[in-house]
Amino acid sequence: MFESARLPHAMTKEDFALFETKLRESLLNAQFELAEQKRAATVVLINGSDGAGKGEVVNRLYDWLDDHFVETLSYGPPTDEERARPGAWRYWRDVPPKGRIGLVLGSWHHRALRNRALGRLDRVAYGNTLEEMNRVEEMLRLEGVYLLKIWLYLDDREARRRLAGLRQADGAMRRPVVLEWEEIDTAKERARLNEAALEMIEMTSTGDAPWAVVPADDPHYRDAAVGDLLLQTLARASSTAQAIAARTLAVAAPDLALPRPSVASALDLTQKADPDAYGAELRALQRRLTAATTAKSFRDKGLVLVFEGNDAAGKGGAIRRVREALDPRRFRVHGVAAPTDEERARPYLWRFWRNIPRRGDVAIFDRSWYGRVLVERVEGFASRDDWMRAYQEINDFERQLHEAGYIVVKLWLAISQDEQLRRFEDREAKPFKRYKLTPDDWRNREKWALYEQATTDMVDRTSSRHAPWTLIEANDKKFARLKVLRAIVERLEK
């Protein structure tokens, strides 16, 4: 999950200074409005690798906020007084009152991660702990506590390199550093910590309290991103969120906008298939797909294929090459359009649940349940609360399929704007292709940046261990078709 955190993120010193000036003013306005209303409290949970700058982020927030209404809540090993009470007691004791902001180091998430990494919690107990966290965090939100959960992401090797550079020969640190994971020192424990952190983010990222994974390579970008997230949280906590949001526009002006790389921008769309080898490669992959879906072992499984992508990215052509390798009695293609009145009268996942195939069969979805976090989000058909909670609902849906023996393969076909325009014009010029082009397709081009951001959020929040996204470079249709087939057979052959 959060593949975009691994992309380069940086701000120049000059851009940061401009951004900071506007951001600080907006943060103070939002903070004083919150303090005056006393309608909600805000709790910022700052987590991540040692060396990622947790302490620096706390200090930066103190620079930007009025410290009369902010407090730091830090937790290490429990004291004798805390051991004499339930484990959650010390967190409940320190919940800030409405109107104030709490900055938390060593939260309840840290405690669970530490115990899992050290082997003190098995997988089942850890899963139960995460479910309990969700219930508690939902209750906090209903009681007027807004959580901002931040994970500062830094590659493990880079984090260890930074710490080694800060540590003197006698073990002392050259400057203050928040160290929370020193006892996690074996390769096995670090691997278990990384896996547990990923599971925690998957399981406890809810609509009301989602995780925000912030790249921490560049301190300027890291601090600007955290400040921007805090401003958004304060806006939601305020009963006059619209007024604060209006002030936020100054921060989001084009010349000051926080750069947000998209997952699509990292793709090399110039890749092409070898035209001489294409036919042989295609047939070989199709044979592997046929073998995998007709094997005896597949009878106890099911295959769910999800095709999403830019308009005119070639989903139909890719699906056709998949169909050619399947027993026609054992698959169905579901073309997903706007919901019918019957479907609108039910929860949005209903129409997809009813099309899940029996084991031994294949369902191909040309568009899917991801419409809730793509077109419905961008076009305003779903409220922010609805599409934010949909990430967890979708993850739960796909997890249920996985646990029932289904293989979920999700494919995003990406093309450039120029290539899309060329394909639109080609469709418009050919009578037998005109049916593929609608006024909505042209209109959606004007919202390219919004769809690109929605796609990045979708991949970040729903590319789980059991149902990861595969991004397909689709400017060259033959390259895309081969990569689609390869992704499917490799999942089936695992």
UniProtKB/TrEMBL annotation:
Key words of the record: ATP synthesis
Domain of life: Bacteria
Pfam families: PPK2
InterPro entries according to UniProt: P-loop_NTPase (IPR027417), PolyP_AMP_Tfrase (IPR022489), PPK2-related (IPR022488)
UniProt keyword Calcium present: no
Catalytic activity: [phosphate](n) + ATP = [phosphate](n+1) + ADP
Domain Polyphosphate kinase-2-related: 22-238, 274-493
Protein name: Polyphosphate:AMP phosphotransferase
